[in-house]
Every structure is written in structure tokens, then in C-alpha cells.
Amino acid sequence: MPSSPLFIIALYIIIAYKRRRPERGAESRLLKEVSLFLGTHGIPEAISITVVTALHFWKRAMLLSIAGGTAAYMLLVQFVF
């Protein structure tokens, strides 16, 4: 393992960056933050989870499942809800 000062500084920067908590915003929306008592009650999230599951069991392709679920969620949020 390298012991140069530059390597150690880079390692500290990486560790400090990974310990930061994500900012609360549209880009860091988590499923656990969905409220069942406000807004659309998690309907777009539930539909997109169903799309991901159905695509994965149908095609067995992880990237297709993720892309399909993301597209379904974005379309639902932008045009339906």
C-alpha cells in the first residue's frame, strides 16, 4: 500500500466525501420519504416499482428494468400526477 503524503490526502478526501449526507432535494428522493398522507399517496412510486418488477421477471435484464421503471416514474410525475 502506498504511503506517500499525496495518497494519504486523497484517501482522507474520499472518506470525507463518502461520509457527507445527501442534500434533500428532487435528486435525492428516497422511497422511505414518501408520505401516504400527502399528495398522490405514493401512487407513482408504486406503479414504477410494479413496472420494474414486471420488466425484470419478463426480460431478466437489470438495465432494462431500471430504465423502464425510471421512465415510467418520470412520465407519471410529469404528465399524470
Please tell me what the overall shape is.
elongated
Return the string of H and E elements.
HHH
Number of strands: 0
Residue share in helix: 55-70%
> Rg to the nearest angstrom?
19 Å
Q: Quaternary status of these chains?
A: single chain
Distance N terminus to C terminus? 53 Å
Structural class given helices, strands, pairing? mainly alpha
Largest sheet: number of strands, sense, barrel closure: none
**Total helix count?**
3
Classify the beta-strand content into a percent band: under 5%
Question: Low-confidence stretches at least 5 residues in length (pLDDT < 50)?
Answer: none
Please, what is the average pLDDT? 80
Notes on the structure:
- Helix 2 packs antiparallel against helix 3.
- The chain starts with a helix and ends with a helix.
- The protein is built from 3 helices and no strands.
- The chain has 81 residues and is an all-alpha fold.
Q: Main attributes?
A:
81 residues, single chain, mainly alpha, 3 helices
